[in-house]
């Protein structure tokens, strides 16, 4: 029930107009989702999209057998670099950022790391 509710929230969120940003959601596996963004800088992806979605999920009510189930999400944010033709390396970076978000306490969004530290 929670997974279906989160998936619906993600789908609804992505169908709303987010300025000129195009959002395409997909289920990645198990309880993991990917949202691909077009026409978006990485900081916009973090603050306008990831944080807005994280807050929406956190504030959503999930009720099962008359009990509220608190739900939060952790997110990783990465960009396809200009020299990359396939998204494989980007997916690795986003997964690393996701696990860092989980390790840092969950219910947060983290940016990918570059060789010189965090991207801006």
Briefly say what this structure is.
The protein has 120 residues and is α+β, with helices and mostly antiparallel strands.
Structure overview:
With 120 residues, this protein is an alpha+beta fold. It is built from three helices and eight strands. Mean pLDDT is 89; it is low at 116-120.
Write the layout of secondary structure elements.
Elements: H1 2-15, E1 22-29, E2 32-38, H2 42-59, E3 63-64, E4 67-68, E5 75-77, H3 88-103, E6 109-111, E7 113-114, E8 117-118
Parallel strand pairs: 5-6
Antiparallel strand pairs: 1-2, 3-4, 7-8
Distinct helical segment count = 3
- What is the molecular shape? globular
Helix content: 40-55%
Largest sheet: 2 strands, antiparallel
**Nearest-angstrom radius of gyration?**
15 Å
Write down the overall mean pLDDT.
Answer: 89
- The class by helix and strand makeup works out as alpha+beta
Q: Which regions are unreliable across 5 or more consecutive residues at pLDDT < 50? A: 116-120
End-to-end Cα distance: 37 Å
Strand count: 8
Spatial order of the strands in the main sheet?
Answer: 1-2
Descriptive key words:
single chain; 120 residues; alpha+beta; two-stranded antiparallel ribbon; two-stranded antiparallel sheet; 3 helices; 24% strand
């Amino acid at each position: 029930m929670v997974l279906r509710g989160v998936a619906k929230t993600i789908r609804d969120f992505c169908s709303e107009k987010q300025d000129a940003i195009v959002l395409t959601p997909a289920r990645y596996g198990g309880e993991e989702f990917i949202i691909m963004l077009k026409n978006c800088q990485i900081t916009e992806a973090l603050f306008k999209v990831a944080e807005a979605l994280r807050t929406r999920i956190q504030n959503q009510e999930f009720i099962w057998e008359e009990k509220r189930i608190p739900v939060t999400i952790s997110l990783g944010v990465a960009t396809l670099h200009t020299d990359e033709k396939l998204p494989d390396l980007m997916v690795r970076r986003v997964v690393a950022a996701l696990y860092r978000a989980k390790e840092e306490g969950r219910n947060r969004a983290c940016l990918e790391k570059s060789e010189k530290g965090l991207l801006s």
